[in-house]
Specification:
By secondary structure, the chain is α/β, with parallel strands linked by helices. It has a domain of 323 residues: Alkaline Phosphatase, subunit A. 21% of the residues lie in helices and 19% in strands. It is built from ten helices and 23 strands. It has a ten-stranded mixed β-sheet. Strands 20-21-22-23 form a four-stranded antiparallel β-sheet, covered by helices on one side. It starts with 10 loop residues before the first helix and ends in a 16-residue tail after the last helix.
């Protein structure tokens, strides 16, 4: 039976012993269930968060770092490859190829889905007694699900208002509870936080019910606009030039040699749109500061209302973002620089504090985790695994590899046929299958005769040394290739038997 480990004083001890102090059962009254605050950022790399050792030494995120001190920081999290499929995963518990009926339609980012073929799990939480709320960016179909999936919803419906799709920070058309839409003039990060704080304090919700809030910030997506109060931050910073910002990139496949976002400036500095790499990285990091301030306000609101110990907090992003690594100014590609997200899970008194989990995990694991915390059975089969064993003991054996697939703008059974060409949106990046198992990452491009990639991330965290081209690693390459196929079959992937042949080694 699914259980929620919930304790006030003896919680950490009980978790270490693997026992439940205060289990929540499927028929328990709602008041015993935890609140759930899911803080979700956009294009937000783990490298921007100070508690991650890969962050630049000048990064300041004291409040997100505090969240890590009061919970578990996951070293390697792969939530998705870009905005829309990541969100679809967190609404369904499925990989992109399993999100049936979701599709792009009309001007970008227009999209639609059939809620009968593609149900979102907050609908099930509502039926089971939760008050469900969503604030901020919406990017999965023009139907936001208010009244079906959400009791409370204040959103920027990006797929509906396509002409405003880059208004990430100002002048957003905000739709209130499925009704009136008004233009938001305030800085969006601050306003989203205000709405979330009000909800936490009880405004607009049924106080008799446990609540789930999905808070979706637009920061730090392009145009990477900081709040005006942060424009002078990080004035004197050092940003080392990534080793493979310019081609050639030895050992990497042909498509990766074509990545050329950056040009050499007069003094050799990498430049994009007549600005240096350092200036872009500075602006990007300035945009994170308002998120960090927002986290403080959210934590303060929970403490002021005596809800902190009964609120599960998940902090993560849709994916990361590369600034020069492998030549990118981009997401999507299977390298950690592009797609690895921060992930912190916290609930003092229930989850161990100040711990680091080194097991790689995926976005598909988060929904089963939420369900187990709430004490509910899953409403349908999901692709991931509850992280509860790792939340009890971050050092526990974790036998599950992380699968991630990139299928461009295609979802569900529309991915069964792999295109021979590349989709314009993602340039030369082909569709791919990625498998992360312990220290190793395997990447199989879904393009005829394109080179596979294999990296030991412990020895080669920058992913510069492709072991797939080396004779001594062919046995491991074959093993991970087969494990990736097995995971695709387990999750009923439609293209698994139709993948193009792998490329020959140079």
């Amino acid at each position: 039976m699914l259980r929620l480990v919930q304790a006030a004083v003896l919680g950490v001890t009980a978790l270490a012993m693997g026992t439940s102090v205060f289990p929540v059962r499927a028929n328990a009254p709602e008041k015993t269930r935890p609140n759930i605050l899911f803080i979700y950022t956009d294009d937000h790399s783990y490298r921007t968060v100070g508690c991650y050792p890969e962050a630049y030494p000048w990064v300041r995120t004291p409040n997100i770092d505090r969240l890590a001190k009061e919970g578990i920081r996951f070293e390697s999290a792969y939530i998705g490859t870009w905005c829309m499929p990541s969100r679809a995963t967190l609404l369904t518990g499925h990989h992109q190829f399993g999100v049936e009926s979701m599709r792009m339609k009309g001007p970008y980012p227009g999209s639609e889905y059939d809620p009968e073929k593609c149900p979102f799990w907050p609908k099930d939480f509502r039926k089971k007694g939760y008050f469900t709320a969503q604030i901020g960016k919406w990017h999965t179909g023009v139907d936001t699900g208010f009244g079906r999936d959400w009791d409370f919803q204040i959103v920027w419906n990006r797929p509906r208002f396509t002409e405003n799709h880059q208004n990430y920070y100002y002048d957003q058309p905000i739709t209130y509870h499925g009704g009136e839409t008004k233009i938001l003039k305030r800085y969006s990060t601050d306003q989203y936080t205000d709405w979330a704080v009000d909800l936490i304090k009880g405004k607009g919700r049924d106080k008799s019910k446990p609540w789930y809030l999905w808070l979706c910030y637009g920061a730090v997506h392009s145009p990477y606009t900081p709040a005006k109060r942060h424009l002078k931050e990080y004035a004197d910073i050092d940003v080392p030039t990534p080793k493979d910002i310019f081609p050639p990139r030895p050992g990497k496949p042909e498509w990766a040699q074509k990545i050329k976002f950056w040009m050499k400036g007069p003094d050799g500095q990498p430049m994009w749109r007549k600005r240096t790499l350092t200036s872009w990285v500075r602006q990007y990091h300035q945009g994170v500061l308002a998120i960090d301030e927002g986290v403080k306000r959210l934590l303060d609101a929970l403490e002021e209302t005596n809800q902190r110990k009964n609120t599960l907090i998940i902090f993560t992003s849709d994916q990361g973002f590369a600034w020069g690594q492998h030549g990118f100014r981009h997401k999507v590609a299977a390298y950690d620089a592009n797609i690895r997200s921060p992930l912190i899970i916290s609930m003092p008194g229930t989850i161990p504090q100040g711990r680091v989990c080194r097991a790689p995990v995926g976005g598909v694991d988060l929904v089963p985790t939420i369900y187990e915390f709430a004490g509910f059975a899953l409403p349908w089969e999901m692709h991931g695994h509850s992280l509860m064993p790792l939340l009890k003991n971050p050092d526990a054996d974790w036998p599950h590899p992380v699968l991630l697939t990139a299928t461009g703008q295609k979802f569900g059974s529309d991915t069964n046929i792999i295109p021979k060409g590349n989709e314009v949106m993602h340039g030369p990046i082909p569709w791919y299958v990625m498998l992360r198992k312990q220290d190793y990452k395997y990447i199989r491009p879904l393009k005829e005769n394109e080179l596979e990639e294999l990296y030991n991330l412990k020895k080669d965290p920058d992913e510069l040394d492709n072991l797939a081209v080396k004779p001594g690693y062919q046995k491991m390459l074959e093993q991970l290739r087969q494990e990736a196929i097995a995971e695709l079959r387990r999750t009923r992937c439609g293209f698994v038997e139709n993948m193009p042949a792998v490329g020959k080694k140079p």
